[in-house]
Structure formats: C-alpha cells, structure tokens
Amino acid sequence: MNGESIPNLVVYMFAYSVIGYVCETAYCSFGKKRFVDRGFLQGPYLPVYGLGALAVITLLDSIAHRPVLVFVLGALICSIVEFVTGWLLQIIFHARLWDYSKHRFNLYGRVCLLNTTLFGLLALIAVTFIHPALRAILQNVSEQVLGYAAAGILIVFSIDTSISVHKMVSFNTLLSRAKQLKSEMEERIDRLGEELRPLARSYVEREFERLRLQLRNAGKRILDAFPNFSRIDFEAQLSQVRASLNQWREQKNVSRKKKKRTEEQ
Length: 265
Description:
Helix content: over 70%
Number of domains: 2
Order of helices and strands: HHHEEHHHH
Strand order of the largest sheet: 1-2
C-alpha cells in the first residue's frame, strides 16, 4: 500500500463498500428469507466496510504472508471501526442502528464475537485474494481516469449522505411529533366533558392514522436496513411503526398470492 495515490484509495474504499454491501445484504436476506436492503445510505454500498477494508489493507498488506496474524489483526481493526461508527451514529442521531446485546460476548451491544470472527475471515480474504486482483486492475487504468472516478465517487457519497441524513432527521422528527401529539391530545381529552370525548377521540385516531402512514413511509428503509434500530425515548412509537410495516407486508403478500392464483387460472 506504500505510495498509493488518493484516487486509488478512494476507488479501493468504494469497491470494498460495494463488496461489503453485497455480502451483508445476501447474509441478512438469507436469514429473513426476503430481500433486505442494508445500509444507512441509499445506494448499494456500505462505507463502514470500505473504511474497515482500507484500514486493513493499509496496515496489514505487508504481512499478507502471515494469515493467522492477518485474521486476528483484521478482526480487531474491523471491530474497532464498527464500534466507533456505532458510537458516532448514536451521538449524532441519538439512536442505535444496530444492537448485539442479545449476542454472546458482545461489547456494549456495538460489536460481538460472531461479527468479529466474520470480519477476521473477510479481512483475510481481502488481503490474500481480493486486493491483489483489485490492485492489478487499477494498475492498468490511467491516473486521469482514476482521478475522475474518485471525484465522482466522492460527489455521489456526499449527495447520498446529505439525503440519508435528511431522511433520518425527518424520521426522528416524526417520532417526536407522534409522541408529543399523543401526550397533548390525551391531556386535552381528559379535560372535555363526556359528550365531547367520543368526537375528540375519533379526531385523534384520524390524526394518528395519518401520522402512522407518514412514519411507515419514512421509516421503511431505516427499519428494514436496521431491524434493531432503537431509541429509548420513542420505543412505543417505533413499535407502532414496526407493527404497521408488518401489516403492510402481509397485505402485499396476500395481494401477490391472489394475483398469482388469478393468473394461473
């Protein structure tokens, strides 16, 4: 990795971000038995994998001939990257996007032994097989083309990050609004007379239904990508959104099966 240019490093990071997305999406989709679009960003890439891989190949490329050491150090480096990323996201968004608390041998729910072992294997595969092939490919690409590619990658990442952050902030805002609306409405209903309470509750239910639809649309991508997404202050609202999403999926499955039976007939 000595002497690698910045465009090369950016392209490496992007390539490993895409590879990480493919691996994690396939792994999670297999477990859920349906397609699961993983990742905080909208595009088919996971920068946390790109950064982890970049750290691994930068620090461990010189000891590629020592596979056991590459496995151990790769597992450690990637786990540190995952831990720090989870910690930063929790500080920024006041939410946990993943939680391994139910896994054995976890550290504050941000990393666990299973993932650390898988990271070690991925690091070994990357250093031993993937990176030499990727480096050979880039050696045949001109510096000018690599420069343009790196600039394009950074622009795409920047735009995607802005959009994804905006969506997360909007989702958190809707959660806060749902909690506040429920609290305010319950307080006001209690002050009304018996004859007005049914009308007030009917109005509140309509407002909540409209808000639930907004939350479902806003949270679908986030809750699909991070099933363990949590916020202590909004657990009740998140439960309602998850229930709404599950109901929506069941209705889609029923509709799809009916359509299939109709076509077969």
